[in-house]
Amino acid sequence: MRIHDNILNLISLEGKTAIVTGTASGIGSAVAIRLAEAGADIALFDIDKHKGPQIEEDIRQLGNKAKFYACDVSVRSDCQNAVDGVSKDFGNLDILVNNAGVITRKDIVQLSEEEWDHVLRVNLKSVYQLSHLVIPRMVQNGGGSIVNIGSGWGIKGGPNAVAYCASKGGVVNLTRAMAIDHGEQGVRVNCVCPGDVHTELLEREAAQMHQDIGEFLAEASDRPIPRVGSPDDVANAVLFLTCQLSSWVTGSIFVVDGGGLA
After folding, report:
1. Which residues are tagged catalytic?
2. What are φ and ψ of residue 21, in 5° steps?
């Protein structure tokens, strides 16, 4: 049976430009590639000047326009320069995926002020900074879609991760507030909250906990769908929230965790 053209049109992102942060690996690279497969041109933001250009080339091989911008999303001037570059290089700006993130596994007594500040700057302040810069350009272009990557631990608490939980809880409610403020301007804002996804970040998390990665993954698989997530699981949700299939969806907190929170 042939897929009808109207369904393909609803999924298509042809003619759209997407900024994706934290694209050098893991969820970010999977999101960038999935949106490119749907037709979008991709602006890749990351601090990794080695891996970032490799993902850019992968996307170019799909036939899409792509450009890597070295950007520390916790630094205002980096965000300003990168967004200005996207406007110059691509013209329109339609999609923003705030994915960049870090985790420090410590309780509040163990956690230093510097560690607290770093996690909050990367995970939460970056969402403010990039949205602040991008939304006026989206409005000028007739609207757009922002997807913030939160976490299951932004909805419930988790052990030895106070800064991470605080930052992701902030992302969840910031998403709702932004959706209220900018819906009439044609800007939809949603949040994807993944459970444990097998990425380099998850492996570094296991190392912080002094836990064997195999044991860590086995424990993380204890959920109704008994496996750890893949970056593609999250990328598929982001595609839904950026395409026309979700044209009446905003302020949504979209949990992708194999039933873990359930």
Report:
1. 164
2. -100, 155
